[in-house]
Design a protein that fits this description.
Strand order of the largest sheet of chain A: 9-1-10-11
Mean pLDDT of chain A: 93
Distance between the termini of chain B: 36 Å
Number of helices of chain B: 15
Number of strands of chain A: 11
Radius of gyration of chain B: 20 Å
CATH superfamily of chain B: Aldolase class I
Helix content of chain A: 40-55%
Shape of chain B: globular
Largest interface: A-B, 28 and 29 residues
CATH topology of chain B: TIM Barrel
CATH topology of chain A: TIM Barrel
Oligomer: heterodimer
Number of helices of chain A: 14
Helix content of chain B: 40-55%
Number of domains of chain B: 1
Number of domains of chain A: 1
Strand order of the largest sheet of chain B: 8-1-9-10
CATH class of chain A: Alpha Beta
Largest sheet of chain B: 4 strands, mixed
Low-confidence stretches of chain B: 97-117
Mean pLDDT of chain B: 92
CATH architecture of chain B: Alpha-Beta Barrel
Structural class of chain B: alpha/beta
CATH class of chain B: Alpha Beta
């Protein structure tokens, strides 16, 4: 393996060889050199935000998800606006600059629900609304008989600022067909992001690995993201995380879920990706995505100690402080992590903890 | 990174305390990991070990009050507990019973090797109980041995051995010899903490000194009891204290060759008197690597997953460690201080963690003999 940092990007084939064969420490060193080049100040950023999941009712019923419920389930919910306002108030009191609003595909909600919600938030609060991943945007477009461009335009004028990169999972339709047959296909995820970028909205990009994908799928995913970024420059960050098997159909801990979701012949995955697999994906992403400035460490799925190590394997950002998080928590992964914990974790890893906004402007050094 | 030092490590030469300090201070974790891996390979090839073991803590009642400890209680204090010998036997039977059942059915042994949590070693450490006489401990060991003749008993830290010698009025040599005769198979490496006097006086003033800890270990090695060695790091010590600690261990090992594994233990801050923060994952990996490189006379470096977490333990296998401990089953000491791990991993989970690093997973016995290689 020859470490290069000369501006010549690596191709898909080379990436695949690296992913399969490269020594992890060598890959880490390479990613670390690139990270230092892009972020020479040894700053590690994070955003203070809260995940508000307005509903857990979802028609998609993805096999890797522990969060979704049927509308009639006893623990199905839809938050009322007062609850949402209260959550935003608390976020602002805690120094938050962003809320992430995301939820399931709820059959009873139409575009007016979303525009009312957005404009009522914007009337009351000065906060960045980072909301609605591509599956939600597409669902809204389809149920309202609008194009994606029209839907995004409407949401944007109602107050939507930026879009999270969720729902990308693995951008390979072969994998999506097995894991989440009802979810939007790759081309639509890309279409939403491209359209959003054209409308001037910034978004992130994610990847959920460690399920049934192959190394080729991972490289394809990275390549799709890189190509789109070449066209638009609209991605602020890339966030890889690993499938968490707890309480999911794919993880085989919930038979009732598989009866409901009607996915056939699923070979279950009992292990979450281990540390070496996570770092390999992370480092490769840093090397491959030469046009995306920020790579987030996923402390929610990996824990703080691994997130610290991730800062030397390509990551430069700790993502959100997650005043509230529900989706990963539903897999049984608990995290009582405070902003102080995050600040000290960053510091003891040898970096300067720095609060940023959604657009990676630096707000406060710790 | 440090080309001259690097050359020396690759040539298999012993490094000095100054060298170790420079390794701790380097920012180049990648070269450090590669050097540690080089040393580990020379000692253990591609093997990484685990053991099917079970922890038992007979009591948390302790006359010492170490400031980093969240486990200990005083006699009569809320949360204090003491297990009777019968209760200990019962706990051991629970695991062994499952093994017997698995083996009883024809043909099921092969396929059931993962699912039945039998264990080959019991690890026993506890507080310094103010009322239990030495005979109680001897009795504990011999009754366990009587019930489970094949079970390896790894028990009592140097701190407990010193205490037994005091309460029984016997010499260290006699204390250890009698324990060995009763069935003690080997000793864990706990209680070492940090040897440096200044730090030790602030951390655990009542506990035996570093010199005494080493004296107990030397006696154990002399009577033919193999032991481990540990270092508790990440509290109030500095890097020089760590190097001093490693150096004292290396000197003793030069004399006795009685240490099997060195186990760096990451400090946990919850419910302790000194509080502070958790160690960083990067520090954990560096500490494993420097230990591996510096302790050239130790065969094994153990990344104890209970304290490091499964993820960092797995990574430590790429930073010089060759052992991730075992199934444990029940863990109280680290969990009193805010362990972020569970108390139990199955053999299957341990094998999976090891294999994902590209190493060969080897189930070992208490003396690192291969029980089974997983391919």
């Amino acid at each position: 393996m020859t470490i290069r940092n000369d501006g010549n990007r690596i191709g898909k084939k080379e990436a695949l060889t690296l992913f399969r064969e490269a020594d992890l420490l060598g890959l880490g060193l390479w990613a670390d050199i690139i990270r230092k080049d892009l972020h020479p100040d040894e700053i590690c950023t994070f955003v203070v935000d809260r995940n508000i999941n307005y509903t857990n009712v979802c028609l998609n019923k993805c096999t890797f998800c522990a969060f979704w419920r049927d509308e009639g389930d006893s623990d199905a919910y839809l938050l009322d606006t007062d609850t949402i306002f209260r959550k935003i108030e608390e976020t602002i009191e805690l120094g938050g600059t962003q809320i992430l609003i995301q939820g399931g595909l709820h059959p009873a909600l139409d575009i007016f629900y979303y525009t009312d919600l957005l404009s009522s938030i914007k009337e009351r609060f000065d906060i960045n609304v980072h909301g609605f991943s591509p599956p939600e945007i597409c669902y809204l477009a389809d149920t309202s008989d609008l194009t994606i461009g029209e839907t995004l335009g409407i949401l944007k004028s109602a107050g939507l600022d930026s879009i999270p990169g969720g729902g990308a999972e693995i951008l390979s339709d072969r994998v999506r067909e097995v894991l989440s047959p009802k979810k939007i296909k790759s081309s639509r995820w890309i279409e939403v992001m491209e359209t959003a970028h054209r409308l001037g909205m910034k978004t992130t990009a994610t990847m959920m690995f460690g399920s049934i994908e192959t190394p080729e799928d991972i490289i394809t995913h990275l390549d799709v993201i890189r190509q789109l970024q070449d066209r638009t420059g609209g991605f602020t960050a890339f966030i890889p995380w690993s499938f968490q098997p707890g309480n999911t159909e794919l993880g085989q801990k919930s038979e009732s879920r598989s009866q409901k979701s009607e996915v056939k012949k699923l070979k279950t995955i009992s292990y979450a990706a281990t540390a070496v697999e996570y770092l390999r994906v992370l480092a490769l992403a840093r090397i491959y995505l030469d046009n995306i400035k920020n790579i987030q460490a996923s402390w929610v799925t990996q824990g703080l100690k691994m997130a610290q190590v991730a800062l030397r394997f390509g990551a430069n950002d700790f993502g959100s402080t997650m005043i509230e998080e529900n989706v990963v928590a539903s897999t049984g992964l608990s995290s009582a992590v405070t902003m102080n914990d995050i600040v000290s974790a960053i510091r003891s890893a040898g970096f300067i903890p720095t609060q940023r906004d959604t657009y990676y402007n630096l707000l406060r050094f710790f | 990174m440090l080309p001259e030092l690097r050359k020396r490590v690759l040539a298999g030469k012993r490094i000095s305390e100054e060298d170790a300090l420079r390794l701790f201070e380097t920012d180049d974790i990648f070269t450090l990991g590669a050097l540690a891996t080089h040393v580990a390979r020379k000692k253990n090839g591609r093997k990484a070990y685990f053991i099917r073991n079970r922890h038992i803590n007979p009591t948390n009642i302790c006359v010492n009050r170490c400031k980093f400890c969240a486990f200990s209680r005083s006699l009569g204090q809320e949360g204090a507990f003491e297990l009777t010998i019968d209760e200990i036997i019962q706990k051991l039977k629970n695991g062994q019973g499952l093994r017997a059942k698995g083996q009883g059915k024809n043909g099921t042994h092969q396929s059931s090797h993962f699912t039945h949590p039998f264990f080959s070693e019991v690890h026993i450490v506890g507080g310094l109980h103010p009322e239990w006489p030495f005979e109680h401990y001897l009795n504990m060991i011999s009754v366990i041995k009587k019930h489970f003749p094949k079970l390896h008993i790894k028990a009592f830290t140097a701190v407990e051995i010193d205490y037994f010698s005091k309460i029984s009025g016997r010499s260290l040599n006699d204390t250890l010899t009698i324990l060995k005769k009763s069935g003690l198979g080997s000793m864990p490496g706990g209680g070492a903490e940090i040897f440096s006097e200044g730090i030790r006086n602030r951390l655990c003033p009542e506990k035996i000194s570093g010199d005494r800890w080493l004296e107990v270990m030397e006696s154990a090695h002399r009577v033919g009891i193999r032991t481990n060695a540990t270092m508790l790091y990440g509290h109030i010590e500095d890097l020089a204290d760590r190097v001093d600690h490693l150096s004292r261990l290396r000197s003793l090992q030069d004399r006795t060759k009685g240490f099997q594994a060195f186990i760096p233990l990451a400090y946990h801050p919850r419910n302790t008197e000194i509080q502070g923060g958790y160690t960083s994952g990067i520090d954990d990996l560096k500490t494993a690597a420097v230990s591996r490189i510096f302790l050239d006379n130790f065969a094994h470096i153990k990344a104890y997953w209970i304290m490091l977490g499964e993820k960092i333990s797995q990574l430590a296998l790429m930073f010089g460690a060759d052992d991730i401990d075992g199934t444990i089953i029940e863990e109280k000491i680290t969990h009193s201080a805010g362990a972020l791990t569970g108390e139990h991993l199955t053999a299957e989970q341990l094998v999976h963690l090891i294999q994902k690093t590209g190493r060969t997973a080897v189930e070992r016995d208490s003396f690192y003999k291969t029980v089974r290689t997983y391919r």
